[in-house]
Design a protein that fits this description.
Order of helices and strands: EHEHEHHHEEEHHEEEEHEEHHEHEHEH
Distance between the termini: 53 Å
CATH topology of one domain: Glycinamide Ribonucleotide Synthetase, Chain A, domain 4
Shape: globular
Strand order of the largest sheet: 12-11-8-9-10-13-15-14
Structural class: alpha+beta
CATH class of one domain: Alpha Beta
Radius of gyration: 21 Å
Number of helices: 13
């Protein structure tokens, strides 16, 4: 097949004649496209809101996850839902599990979702069942904005117990840095509490042993290559969908692009799947899609779990379709119906390599203009297979990006090629059309505020798990 050709509009579906009705919760961006490919074979009811756009995100005020799930279960009962799906990390995956439980539909168990998303609890479980893949960790014994303990050995990696998109996750090298990083203004605290509290209310009832999610934690910092293992669990057994490699902006923790297929060796991928099976079984994850982020140090062979996401990584779904002709969104719908996704047919792949290119600014004055109508039209003509997402921000939202993430992600572009070289050629040409610098290290100038990648650190945090 011509690698320049558009992607197929749909994958041969599941139970097409019946057109079962599915509840889609918090379905945006990649999920809109992914589930849109299946619209001819399913009826979809959608609910939820977009956390990243106003006025939709005003619904954070007073949002109650249990109440939302109960309303959706009532709606699903009235309309005869055959399944319910969400790949939304912050609220959707847990909401879908609650709805499936109330309606008696196939789904990931609620307690398994909680165990994965409560990052401190997940570390404790990991220490019991796959300690060789765990990082040293500890609770940061301070409330939001509280005094930082004096007995921490630096450097450490600090992150929220419950968060998504690497928000507020970063390495700190001394007490002063950690103190500055954990100072929050009134507006920031308002956002943080409303993002965490819906999860907290459910966790207090269903997973009280995990403790509060309204806190941050410390981990051993690691400088090593990162990758994502994507897969699914059916009848309690974990299966690998594939691996996507992460490439960082030089000297930062910020993702520059995601590439598939992976360059990781088959033996390391098999070890990652074994870790996944042990952990997921331990938390009762018997059904559903998963995404697990790993470090791998090729010099030592060390494999370490970064975090476990109990849902499909929707951003990567398109990459698997381009390279393998498999549609992870269709697979998630099969699971929602209780079917084995391995039985789904494939289509011919359109390329041998694909990437999700992430465009970032590291200072407020470095973000380029968003592509205009003429640039978007040129991109559509010359790269009809490309997927472009733009994320313009300003004011408090932009400032929060720099504090919470260390950079501003202003756009993402998906393209493919015959091989790595052709992929890069197309990525650079497409980037030029929209006026953005392609996210390849040797195409970039100095990234402000960055140095060299830190050396691996294997230092025990006082009071941490051994």
């Amino acid at each position: 097949m011509n690698p320049e050709a558009p992607l197929p509009t749909h994958l041969p579906g599941i139970r097409r004649a019946a057109r079962p009705r599915i509840g889609l919760l918090f379905s945006y961006d990649w999920d809109t496209l992914g589930f849109g490919r299946q619209a001819g074979q399913f009826q979809f009811d959608q609910a939820g809101f977009d956390l990243f756009s106003f006025p939709s995100n005003a619904r954070l005020v007073g949002f109650d996850l249990m109440r939302f799930a109960t309303r959706q279960a009532q709606h699903g009962k009235r309309h005869g839902w055959a399944g319910v799906v969400s790949h939304h990390e912050q609220f959707g995956a847990l909401a879908a599990a609650l709805v499936a439980e109330q309606l008696g539909l196939p789904g990931t168990p609620v307690d398994a979702i909680l165990a994965c998303q409560h990052k401190l609890h997940a570390r404790r479980v990991m220490q019991q069942v796959c300690p060789e893949a765990n990082l040293r960790f500890a609770d940061l014994e301070a409330q939001y904005g509280g005094e930082v303990p004096a007995d921490i050995a630096y450097p450490v990696y600090v992150k929220p117990v419950k968060a998504a998109f690497s928000v507020l996750a970063r390495r700190v090298d001394n007490h002063a840095e950690l103190h500055r990083h954990t100072r929050f203004g009134r507006r920031e605290l308002w956002v943080i509490r409303r993002l965490v509290e819906p999860f907290e209310r459910v966790a207090r009832q269903r997973l009280p042993q995990a403790g509060t999610a309204h806190r941050m934690m410390l981990e051993e910092p690691v400088a090593a290559a990162q990758f994502n293992l994507d897969g699914w669990v059916y009848n309690g057994r974990a299966h690998a969908l594939g691996v996507v490699d992460a490439v960082m902006y030089p000297g930062t923790q910020a993702f520059m692009r995601w590439e598939h297929p992976s360059r990781l060796g088959a033996e390391v991928q098999a070890r990652a799947l074994d870790v996944a099976q042990r952990f997921l079984a331990a938390v009762g994850f018997t059904h559903g899609m998963f995404n697990i982020e790993f470090f791998h140090d090729p010099a030592t062979g060390r494999l370490s779990v970064i975090e476990v996401n109990p849902r499909l990584a929707s951003q990567f779904s398109d990459l698997y379709q381009r390279v393998h002709g498999i549609d992870p969104h269709a697979m998630s719908l099969a699971l929602a119906l209780g079917d084995d996704p391995a039985a789904l047919p494939r289509v011919a792949p359109v390329g041998g390599a694909a990437a999700s290119l992430v465009y970032r600014a590291f200072s407020a004055d470095a973000a380029p203009a968003m592509p205009g109508a003429a640039q978007r039209a040129a991109l559509a003509r010359q790269f009809p297979d490309a997927l472009l997402f733009t994320f313009p921000k300003s004011g408090h939202a932009l400032a929060r990006d720099f504090k919470w993430l260390g950079s501003h992600r202003y756009g993402i572009l998906h393209v493919h090629g015959r091989d790595d070289a052709h992929l890069r050629q197309r990525a650079e040409a497409a980037s030029a059309l929209i006026g953005w610098t392609p996210p390849y290290a040797d195409c970039l100038g100095h990234v402000p505020g960055t140095g060299t990648n830190p050396a691996p650190v294997h230092q025990l945090i006082p009071g941490a798990s051994p």
